[in-house]
Design a protein that fits this description.
The protein is of the alpha+beta class. It has three domains: 3-84, Butyryl-Coa Dehydrogenase, subunit A, domain 1 (Orthogonal Bundle), CATH 1.10.540.10; 119-229, Beta Barrel (Butyryl-CoA Dehydrogenase, subunit A, domain 2); 240-361, Butyryl-CoA Dehydrogenase, subunit A, domain 3, CATH 1.20.140. The chain is built from eleven helices and eight strands. The protein has helices spanning 3-26, 34-46, 65-78, 86-99, 102-114, 228-239, 242-264, 272-294, 300-324, 330-341, 350-361, and strands at 119-122, 138-142, 145-156, 163-169, 180-186, 192-197, 206-217, 221-222. A hairpin with an 8-residue loop joins strand 6 and strand 7 (206-217). The protein is globular, with a radius of gyration of 21 Å. The structure holds flavin-adenine dinucleotide. Flavin-adenine dinucleotide is lined by residues 120-124, 129-130, 154-156, 206, 342, 345-346, 349-352, 355.
Length: 366
Amino acid sequence: MSSRQQAGEEFRRSVRDWLTAAVAELAGACVDDVAVRKAWDRKLYNAGLAGLTWPEEFGGRGLSLLEEYILHEEAARAGAPEGNGRIGRILVGPLLIKHGSPAQQQRYLKPILRGDEVWCQGFSEPGAGSDLAGVSTRADRTGEHYRVSGQKVWTSFADQADRCLLLARTSAEAPRHHNLGMLLLDMRQGGVEVHPITRITGERTFSEVRFDGAVVHERDRVGGETDGWRMAMAVLSDERGPIEAITRYLVMSRHTTMLRECCARGSRAPELDEVCARVETVRWHAMRGLENALAGIEDRPADSVSKLMWSHTWQALAAYGLRLGCPRHEQAWQQQYLESRAASVFSGSTQIQRNIIAERVLGLPR
Ligand SMILES: Cc1cc2nc3c(=O)[nH]c(=O)nc-3n(C[C@H](O)[C@H](O)[C@H](O)COP(=O)(O)OP(=O)(O)OC[C@H]3O[C@@H](n4cnc5c(N)ncnc54)[C@H](O)[C@@H]3O)c2cc1C
């Protein structure tokens, strides 16, 4: 066993022990409850398990993606809550570590890790989703301040968020891709209205957000005044990395257990092996991405392949579960089926991933 693997196994043991005890302390609390999820974020922070890959100077542990992967695997095994600060930890924190000013790093990173401040990601608009460069929310500058007006949509966590990572037009004249800025906007101010949207699952996890004169100081702009597109690309690549694929694998793996239970209860089982094999393929693909990342190899098209694989596999798994008609898990399969449909759209739609693969891997003409 290499020294890295050995260190990984030691880390796994300590994390497993801690998680077993911490999850037992939850003693039946609802893991979807916002207060429980917030408290979980704080618990992870206090145990030194938040921001494993963040540099120590920003409150992280300076560990590798391997430890991050192990933590996810053990958390799934223990049935731990997801935590509430996902957007902050996965998207905003890494962006600020790479591109934020020292003052932004000082102000925002620790509250993200502690779970004290919840963030949302204000990119998509009614007229700009896949075509993100077309955002029309304006950030008009007067002196040191921007005044923001416009509308965002599908903004996850907006109803709980303290802050928003906002992509907005900072220039009326500059050409596409050079007319955007990335702003850190305080959601708790006048000029911000949040209207939750009910999903097909009945949940209200995202919202429409309207801005009418909300203010952002220039010190809360990440990068230069028209660096927004570059910042947005950095954020989106973090969104599709191997840890995301592994997280999806872990959830699906739990659902294959549910599938097996349904089949064991006398339901039909012809597709079971195929679906389970597809789920394992997602794992191996994600592991390859992890290995590349650990070796410092960046492979964006592979992240697109991974996104396609896990979204299609999740949909196939949920559709199969629903078709089995297992009375014990019927409601769970209905929920999974409806929820899995969104995977064709979020984190870059299926068609957009196919375009990336066609152009950047296969070299097909645009
Ligand atoms: C559950 C969920 C959570 C989300 N959370 C957030 C969030 O927190 N913050 C945020 O900013 N956004 C969020 N989104 C929005 C998401 O990023 C967008 O829905 C996505 O980018 C697609 O944009 P759109 O909905 O405008 O669809 P469109 O871009 O209008 O696409 C419509 C259809 O056309 C296809 N299409 C578009 N362009 C092309 C092309 N060039 N070639 C081929 N086909 C194309 C698409 O694949 C899709 O099928 C979330 C979405 C979901 C479902």
